Amino acid sequence: MTRRVATRPRDYVGVAGPDAEDFLQRMLSNDVTSAPCRALLLTPKARVIAPVTVVRRAEDDFLLLTEPGLGEPVTSTLLRARFAAKVKIEQEEHTSVVAFGEEEGIPNREFGEAASELLDAGVEPTLSGEELEQLRIEAGMPAWGKEIDDSILPAEAGLDETHVSFTKGCYPGQEPIARLRHRGKVNRILRVLEVEDASQGDEIRVSDKVVGRVTSAAGGRALAYVRVEVPLDAQLAVGADRKTGRALTA
To answer: What pTM was computed for the model?
Structure first.
């Protein structure tokens, strides 16, 4: 059987020093003592600066894997917050591949199948970027620049379930995240849709009322933010030509 491997574009930020764990624990949304883990770097108002995967390389040495183009914002945000913390923060150069069915490496949950992310492995990909995108969309996983940006609340994308600890100490954005979880509700959520030939930006309507917008699409599936009151069995009209669709996830 052919090994299924795909390139995973990344930026990388190293955080090392005697205070590295304490510093990241007060800056990121998840409990870094359980690394490897997924987390968010947030503004005080809980807007997303960057999603990251936290990897511990040694007791006082961490590597943050983030999205292409976000290495500089992550680095500059952490440097501004460093103050007297004894920690070195700098961008690094690495390569990543996602290997499906692998157990060694960094657990990767982005594509709906058991997989590991391998750093600097020198492995040739056997899957294209388009195939990897199809798997991501079918798995309902949000991506930076499509489903995640600084206008999205983490709970709308389901990131409060995967990237946030509600038992750890304080971090920027903690209060809005906790308040929404315990006392509020979101108006829209990310859903997987079944619809042919959808395009990013297509409006979604129910009975001529706009209820959402497509954020990603491939191979008869789409991701879209849809109003929470829209039921699974609702008939959806997608795009200007009103293609028929339905939600596969609530």
So the answer is: 0.94
